[in-house]
């Protein structure tokens, strides 16, 4: 399978899951560490519009802001560092993720908006929480908050809100996800 190149100034849906559908996060500590690694390896290389960490998979909507080779290497470093730490912590060996991380190039603003909604509402769609707005490991709370938390992944909030015209529309469309048919999409 030929992997999509990560071209500068383009948007992508980045996602993957655990090998054989198994867990890649067994605790909140694992999720927090993964977010720290995102900050370490992806800062100044991609602009993050949305993310969500679930027990057996993750999603990100990003814009590439550096050259492809540097960004691809940064993602590789992130996933390798996390897998090594996870394996050590949980006394396991071998691959943690299914093959290479998946990436879909996004060429349309409507698709990008729907993807952001899909990512932020993913925990509710999977039954992990009754209300996606309260889920700690997605970008929704950071996007609607006035300022970035010091321990969260920096979100391109202004750009995200502008995609939805304003914060009120961002929140409204997230609440309407079922009427948009986003609960039936299968990007996982």
Instruction: Indicate the CATH class.
Output: Alpha Beta
Biggest beta sheet attributes? 4 strands, antiparallel
CATH architecture: 2-Layer Sandwich
Mean pLDDT: 89
Secondary structure class reads alpha+beta
Radius of gyration: 16 Å
Shape annotation: globular
Strand order of the largest sheet: 2-3-1-4
Number of domains: 1
The CATH superfamily is Transposase IS200-like
Would you count the extended β strands for me?
Answer: 4
CATH T-level fold name: Alpha-Beta Plaits
What does this structure look like?
- It is a single chain.
- With 188 residues, the chain is α+β, with helices and mostly antiparallel strands.
- The protein has a single domain (11-184), classed as Alpha-Beta Plaits (2-Layer Sandwich).
- Helices cover 40% and strands 15% of the residues.
- The chain has helices at residues 28-42, 68-89, 109-125, 140-144, 157-163, 167-175; strands spanning 11-17, 46-53, 57-64, 102-106.
- The chain has a four-stranded antiparallel β-sheet.
- Helix 1 packs antiparallel against helix 2.
- The longest helix has 22 residues, at 68-89.
- The radius of gyration is 16 Å and the shape is globular.
- Residues 182-188 have low confidence and may be disordered.
